[in-house]
Design brief:
single chain, alpha+beta
Length: 125
């Protein structure tokens, strides 16, 4: 479904961040229903990135977090430089006011200056 709406994105190999947030949209305003979730994936191709995004969406919607919404959400996707509103089967119509959406933003994970100089931070348990 993602590839049908946005096409296969051109990506540089490396880490990409997938941000997933449930939001309620009423008119032009938007309120967060729960804290956002970040998923970091390392991919080599646009096809791999599209599959990683689809997997993150499925795990977020049908995983342990679905109890916050009473019906299947539509998806507002921002995949690098592409945007799409995805209607999931069983979700309310795209133009219904007050529904909960899953907002998905995908961007390349750029390391900060300290990480580039000294490498990633190591967490000791």
């Amino acid at each position: 479904m993602i590839i049908a709406e946005t096409g296969i994105p051109k990506v540089r190999p490396g880490r990409h961040e997938i941000w997933l947030t449930f939001v309620r949209r009423t008119g032009t305003s938007e309120e967060r229903v729960m804290p956002g979730r970040r998923d970091v994936r390392s991919v080599m191709t646009g096809q791999e990135l599209a599959h990683a995004v689809a997997e993150s969406i499925v795990l977020t919607v049908f995983g342990g977090e679905i109890q916050v919404v009473d019906q299947l959400p539509n998806v507002k996707l921002r995949l690098l430089d592409r945007r799409a509103d995805l209607h999931l089967p069983g979700a309310p119509p795209l133009d219904q006011d007050g529904q909960v959406w899953l907002r998905v933003t995908v961007r390349r994970s750029e390391p900060g200056l300290l990480e580039r100089l000294f490498g990633p931070r190591v967490h000791t348990g």
